[in-house]
Amino acid sequence: MVWHLSQAGPVDDIKRNVEEVKAHVAKFSKPDLYLAVRTLLITAALYAGFLAAYPYTTKHWALWAAAAILRAGVNVRTFIIFHDCCHGSFFRSGWANMIVGRIAGGLTCTSWSAWVKMHNVEHHIHHGKDILFFATVPGLVFLITGVHNGKLPMMDQMVPSQPKFVLASMDPIDRVLPTLLPALQAWAGYALHGSSWLWFQLAFYTLGSTMGFMLFHLQHFAHVPDLYFDIPKDQHDRDLASLMGEFYIPVHPGVVQYHHIHHFSTRVPSYRIRSCHISAPPATWRYIKYLNLKTELQSFLLVMWNEDLHRFESFPELNWLLG
User: Fold this and answer.
1) 186-191 own/partner pairs: CB under 8 Å, 24+ apart
2) Where is the Fatty acid desaturase domain (predicted)?
3) Domain count along the chain
4) Is 167 contained in some domain?
5) 301 in a domain, yes or no?
6) Helices in the chain by DSSP H: which ranges?
7) pLDDT tens digit string along 114-147?
8) DSSP at 311
9) Residue 123 lies in a domain
10) Domain limits at 6?
């Protein structure tokens, strides 16, 4: 059983749609200085606003919890800016992308240089077909997967080399900023609000990291048929993979639901990606799969690719939840 393009629709129409999408996306593949600066100013205002308004959130646990969730969203927003800078799409200037990217990466405890090398190479060139792709995702998940399925020899190829690879990718600045900037946040919050701020910061960093991991998983693994992942490496086509391996997430705020555009062109900045999607001519996205709430929740259970059945699966004990 080998997946074939004709399973998803008429081959000629699919290839024609690829060209239509590429032509449309190309119109938005340029940075906009006004939108970039506006995005940064709004983000900076959110940082300052949460720091100033924190005393009001301590009056009731529900306010505190809501503030922690919203502040975690600011961390996700900051990471999206960092992600754009890594692709060189936030500003026209490479220096501006590097400076803002390093700061945004520091605020989200992420290495600029390691992410640029691993994400741009392993993720976008191989589109998840190389084992090093898993180096961008917490290894514990895949360690558990390997133990559960008795496939630890696969892990031997990855885990011992991963720390060296990551450390070799980090420059001296990256070794300092991801620790220094959160520490400065903690110091400023402690100076203004006392030790309760430290618990607040721990909460929003933990929630922000969890949100980011869940969104990353949802953007790349879905419980839908006829995805592109089973095409052999030697027949891989990046544009077809972007079209046939993507899906639209209609219920999320922000820009995370438009990730199918990002895989067509990493040069489309996040502040232009929504307008790129909604301004497309009718039927432009006809082969993009739409997720509903049920398939979204099911997709969080997916942990591995079944080579025999040609589909993503969960652990055997949970596969019944996938239907």
Assistant:
1) 188/51, 189/51, 189/54
2) 60-277
3) 1
4) no
5) yes
6) 11-26, 33-57, 61-86, 94-107, 112-118, 139-149, 152-158, 162-169, 172-193, 196-220, 238-244, 259-264, 270-278, 293-299
7) 788 777 665 555 444 433 333 334 444 444 444 4
8) E
9) no
10) 1-30+221-323
